[in-house]
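User: Show me an example of a complex going from sequences to structure tokens.

Assistant: Sure. Here are the input components:
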Amino acid sequence: MKRVTNVIITVLFMFCTASWIVAAENSSKLLPLTPMGDKFTAQNYPLDGIHKKLGLSCVDCHNETKPEEYSSEMLGSCLKCHGNYETVKERTAHWGHNNNVHQSPHFENLACDVCHKSHSKPASNSNLCVQCHGQKTMKQLLVK
Amino acid sequence: MKKIIVITVAISFVATLILVWSGHKVVKVTGDAPFCGSCHSWDGLIAQTHMHDPIHGNANPKGVQASCTDCHLPHSSLIAYLGVKAKNGIAEGWTTLTKDPSKKDWLANRENARKNYTYDSSCLECHKGLLERASKAEFADEKSSKMHLKYINFKGTKEEMQCTSCHKLVGHKDLGETLFKQKDTRPESWDEWEKQRKEKK
Amino acid sequence: MLNMQRRKAMKTFALLGSGVALFPALEAQAKMLEKDVPRWDEEFDAIVVGSGFAGSAAMVSMMDNGLRNVLMIDKMPYLGGNSSISGGSFAISGTYIQKQDGIDDNPELHIKDTLKSGKNLNDIELVRIMAYEGLDSFNWLTTNGVKWKWVSQSGGHSVSRSHSAGAGSYIVRPLQKRIREMGGKIRMRVIMDEIVYNEKGHVIGMKVREKYEFKFDRDFDENENTTGNTKYYRANAGIILATGGWGADKKFRQQMDAKLTPTTLTTNHMGATGYTIKKLIQDDIETIDMQYIQSMHVTSADEGSFGFAYRFITRAYGYGMMINPKTGRRFVNEIVDRKNGTDAILAMNEGGTNHPILFMDSVGVKTVDIADLQRGMEADAIWQFETLDEMIAKFNINKEPFLDELKKYNEYVKSGKDADYGRVFQKYKGATITIEKPPFFAARPGPKIHHCMGGVKTTPQCLVFHKGGYTVPGLFACGEVTGGRHGYNRLGSNAVLDCILFGRKAGKSIADRYKQIVRS
């Protein structure tokens, strides 16, 4: 009886070890997991401002077929409505060359979501430029 | 008796012709760049941005262009057009004579101009079939149709939008940048810097 | 009795087993082998990791040498990393621009300057290759669409040989344009997690995560970022590592050099972490000179990162004077290299509370592009003073000794001999510049962590060494991730030379390997 108990305990421990190792291997997969239906709701991913007023739905911006595959990389879908980078540059040109966040000499056609987070209110200055260029006029520019 | 009637009719006919022709001519001349730009040297740069605009301005490669009043006066009716034209003409004439252009914040005024001095009826005067197109099933997949349907739905509600709520850059190319540069008096070369220093002294 | 012993042994073993399970990281430390790959999601001839100077040059080079099905990946949501935000200066002798400006220069002088700064700890063969073959890479950039703006003297160089394109992105972007024109693929938000080796130890591919979301937080450890979907890319001829340095990795850089505390500022973008170099070390790749991490002193203490004032400061070192406000006196030859300059400033700035004052007069300031000066002033990092008294008041400078020091400085410039620090005064348009004519312009230099001289050990053809002393087939490296070229300290603008030249070599090496594999 004691022997059997020993064996059972050992097997149980080894099983736990093995499953922890397997779980660690898979830890790099995209979160979240289940349940799929509940997670991707308007409450969990709210919109703000003009996108909310226009009543946009998920597929208006996200190109992937399944909600689990959605990422913040819009693959150019922002420009389906917002024209092209030239237009976007013109929109913020009134701040002058040194503060035109859409006319960076460093990055061409910078992906929109590096600064613009549609599903959460950004921290008051999540624009990329201010990380290095902290002049007063740049600090005042809040990402919409 | 007959003679008087004939002469009266003839004179009235000619007079009406002259009046209508000259009235039309005046309205037309006072509706485009040379006239608008003549008083305001301040608006000069703004008028130039219109001239450089490749879609609605003089830089359009197909030769199609909108004049100042095509956008900046309502086209909902002749009375509205003439009425607003007269009102603005007097008000702006007064402002030109009495106020100082260098004190005006032109950059901030762009929003005011978009809201109150451009009219949906003027856009729709040229873009006539736009809203009808949005409601048609065969064009339902166009992204513009989706947005214009929302415009139609919001009309009359508190969410009401204007054409310029989304189409903000129409008609004046690089307006923001041009106005910023106008305001920025910093020298662009060392020679200019020397000149500015001399002038300050 | 035996039963009890056996039970105890089994329990201990089981505990050990579960102990291992509690640290899944230990599992990841082993090299990844082909048999561990569940399936290859995509197949390429070769893959470049990193999209800066070195990575882009490597891509163009391998495509020019015949490879077509190639991919360049970058973990960030933008391309070019530190290269894109750098000044974009290429140091080399013998260019047409130097000839135009009447500058007399040669490779031996370039080597001498480089070895002096590197304290002769550089790999001399690599330095000779850079000095003698660099001109070819310079001209190669010109043919690929790079436009050069001016040539100037960077600290530690004895002549003006730093050719500027204006910004690093003006070198990276033309190269990436060529890559796209030739049909090469470039993907962002893809991070390499593991290199995959076959049973012979050759590199045959990698494990990556696509749709990786980098977290823009300087205190966040990248190893804790679990975003992205795992994929396996096969790379038939191998991979080129061009992942750059780790100046922004607060933990790792301090492990390499204890003096670099978490509050020390850096010029680097947030993506410059030790993520890849740590993996390489775990894979038993040989690294050298890891303890040498350079800070550069042409940045302003009043700006948080690279900022705008550096263009003024670079010129001011050449045509102006730097003093300790408390003593009012100079304390170093202003035109020394980055290591000596940084050390001198750190020795006097009292932990960042007593910044040095570097200033020029209105004649000297004209050596700076006026737009650059205005940007620095807008950032409150450069000040203009109509009189010296205003400057003295603003920075609380010790007046009497300062005025005496300024008098001495101007005499040194006129006589051509700096009796205190041995500085050689540069000429601008034929004449040296004193500090006499108001207004005066001042900035406060503050050193920031900038470049990692150490890294992976490679051959001159960019093959990577294993700790066992042999090169790893299929593994190549170029750029800041490599070590040996710069020794103890790197000269400014030698990095672009290093990255472009060895990036091209890595591209050629991998193309040669591909041809070999295809033939056999």
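The lines above are the inputs; the final block is the predicted structure for all three components together. Chain C touches chain B through four residues (CB under 8 Å).
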